[in-house]
Amino acid sequence: MLLKKIIEIKGILHCDTGLRIGGSKDTIEIGGLDNPIIRHPITEYPYIPGSSFKGKLRSLLESVYGRKFKGGGELTGKFASNPCMCGKCDICKIFGAHQNTTHQLGPTRLIVRDFPLTDESIEKLIEARLEKGLHFSETKAENTIKRESGTAHNPRVYERVPEGTEFNVNMTLKIYDIDDQTKIVNIIKQGLKLLESDYLGSSGSRGYGKVSFRNLQFIEKDIYEKISVE
């Protein structure tokens, strides 16, 4: 198996609605939120973890291709909700054969790195912090409705990335000599289109996490390019 090509996938992920990917409560101070978003530990800027994005993309594609099978039998018990682990299908080839150490597919084809804020969004969020005191995010109050009385109870406040915020898409695709490049690229494009019709992060059924992609590029890199060393 020979590596033939590397394709960089670049573009912008635009938040059409507020986006929430939960973070740790370990650093919550007095008066802080109980439901914070994930942030960079140094800059405190929000970001999209590569693991969250890759998992969502894989899950959507598995639902389309029916990849909940192993060896011809439907997965049951603790494996029922796990990623596909057949080690034979295109989903396993692209995203990795989950917990299958005997597969013959070779290395995982898709690498998804963390998506950082764009420079323009950093400027807007810093401006909002100076003018409105927002900590690179917004807060949204929610509650539950009692069915018997129609009154609200269990109030809670969630933190989320504001609508209009943008992140830099940062993925790499490896193509080997045994691969059908067109097929693999099309599957990834299909997953991205599915995501635009679904949601990223949590609380999608309540309006969170609608995203769209802008200026997506699949840039082929020359792996044989000579690098001069001075």
UniProtKB/TrEMBL annotation:
Designated name of the protein: CRISPR system Cms endoribonuclease Csm3
Family per record: Belongs to the CRISPR-associated Csm3 family.
Gene Ontology molecular-function annotations: endonuclease activity; hydrolase activity; RNA binding
Entry superkingdom: Bacteria
Domain CRISPR type III-associated protein: residue ranges: 14-212
GO biological process terms on file: defense response to virus
Keywords carried by this UniProt record: Antiviral defense, Endonuclease, Hydrolase, Nuclease, RNA-binding
Cross-referenced InterPro entries: CRISPR-assoc_RAMP_Csm3 (IPR013412), CRISPR_Csm3_endoribonuclease (IPR052216), RAMP_III_fam (IPR005537)
Lineage of origin: Bacteria, Bacillati, Bacillota, Bacilli, Bacillales
NCBIfam families found in the cross-reference section: cas7_TM1809 (TIGR02582)
